[in-house]
Amino acid sequence: MKARLLRLYAALARRYGPQHWWPGRTPYEIAVGAVLTQHTAWPNAARAVAALRAARLLAPARLARQAPPRLAAAIRAAGTPRVKARRLRTLTTWLLARTGGSFAPLRRQPLGPLRRELLGVPGLGPETADAILLYAAHRPVFVADAYARRVLARHRLLPRRAGYEEARAGVEAHLPSDPALFNELHALLVAVGKAHCGAVPRCDDCPLRFDLRGRRPAT
Ligand code: SF4
What we know:
CATH architecture of the largest domain: Orthogonal Bundle
Bound molecules: iron/sulfur cluster
CATH topology of the largest domain: Endonuclease III, domain 1
CATH class of the largest domain: Mainly Alpha
Largest sheet: none
Structural class: mainly alpha
Mean pLDDT: 95
């Protein structure tokens, strides 16, 4: 599995080049973006991030002081603003209590307990928590989102209906524990998912077609 995953990665990198994920000027901005993009497309979340920046709220202490209605108004573009405002405040309160608002200490904590702690923050599902760990804290966690699971399952690298945790653990078990690799692999799987591997796979011109070896994608 390791060799195949690395071949897929190399083929995607050749086709799409560096993905420069995750967009964000600071680790905190990346974490905020990870919450804001829940259940919405990234451009909507990016508009909300820009609104927070314009309001000078992309700093943990300032955001935590905001009244919930004002915060919700600022992030309206991301959808479900009251829910996401509450989640941003909860995450930010956790971060302030845990590290004073810095992500640097999170780079040194034992990963397993840290991940469990983050998963205990209300409003953070595994995908959001892992995006924060990988992209904001540079920890070696694979974000096994729906794009990644669909591509890997169609290539029989994961069971057909593998859930998030099974997929994450499976990929992490077979690849070097390297945040840069997990970062780029996830971004590239999203790229091929958007370009070719949607609800109906369009394999003809896909950079991963070679790996099917003449077989149809698993369904
Ligand atoms: S479109 Fe086809 S070849 Fe491309 S990733 Fe999906 S299943 Fe694989």
